[in-house]
Amino acid sequence: MVATPIGNARDITLRTLDILAAADVLAAEDTRSLRRLMEIHGVALGDRRVLPYHDHNGPKMRPVILKALMEGKSVAYASEAGTPLVSDPGYALVRDAAAGGHAVTAAPGASAALAALVVAGLPSDRFTFAGFAPSGATTRRAFYRGLAELTGSLIVYETPNRLADSLEAAAEGLGADRPAVICRELTKRFEEVRRDTLGALLDQVPDMTLKGEVVLVIGPAPDRETSEADIEAAMAEAMQSLRLKEAAAEVAERLGIPKREAYAMGLKLKGD
Fold first, then answer.
1. Which of 31, 44, 142, 151 sits a CA distance of 20 to 30 A from 224?
2. What is the pLDDT of residue 224?
3. What is the SS3 string spanning 153-197?
């Protein structure tokens, strides 16, 4: 599984060039982009074909690729841009190849999700890659509401023509004051990174030149001080099914408070 540059052709790795030169069979999400990449770096295709493998022909092409593996041939599969299986159709191919007893290895490299996280300047110790936001308005709103309880930063892929709708849904579901970053044309000549809140970025969209894939990185929700009422409500709920000590431990971990505070509230509730 071969990662390819997301923009700048020089981001390819030396190991990837070796693999592309030596593989018995080449497969690609976009055959034209792989051919062009190999031409740029002087990797001869020779008499090898580049087999197309994408969302629309997976069931038809997987048996062809698996047959090559059964014959003992090495196969290099390249994504159109970035790392295979990250919003890419290679998952079923890896699954079936592994199920057939074939060794599957990765030639790591560029990834738009990680490149955006690196330049965003948002917390990166914990993050969720959510893929592309749905295209429908109702499902898009539900998508962002479903991410509201997650801790850490969120990474979402979006198309230029849907960016405004996505920002609007994100502001509604996550809060307009959430810090966010729009990353566009990463590693390319006109790379652009805009940092602000979701609400402010939504206001800026009409002034932006949008083309190519967009990565939206959304920071964690601002910390909210836990009130006595929060602890009381959490303990009252937990004590319905747990003993006092267990409830205190569960609530303390969930709310990020000392266990003694949760335990004291539990005693107060039992006394009441």
1. 142
2. 64
3. EEEEEECHHHHHHHHHHHHHHHCCCCEEEEEECCCCCCCEEEEEE
Cα–Cα distance for residue pair 124/154, rounded to 1 Å: 10
Closest CA to 21 of 5, 2, 162: 2
Q: Where are the domains of the chain?
A: 9-99, 112-218, 228-271
Q: What is the DSSP string of 185-245?
A: STTSTT-EEEEEEHHHHHHHGGGS---S-EEEEEPPPPP-PPPHHHHHHHHHHHTTTS-HH
What is the third-level CATH fold of 9-99? Cobalt-precorrin-4 Transmethylase; domain 1 (3.40.1010)
Topology alike, domains 9-99 and 112-218: no
Q: Whole-angstrom Cα distance, residue 56 to residue 200?
A: 38
* Residue 5 near residue 12, CB atoms below 8 Å: yes
Is the pTM higher than 0.70? Answer: yes
Q: Is residue 179 exposed (0-12), middle (13-18) or buried (19+ Cβ within 10 Å)?
A: buried
Distance CA 62, CA 58 (A): 6
Write down the architecture of domain 112-218 according to CATH. Answer: 2-Layer Sandwich (3.30)
Q: pLDDT tens digit string along 131-182?
A: 999 999 999 999 999 999 888 999 999 999 999 999 999 999 999 999 999 9
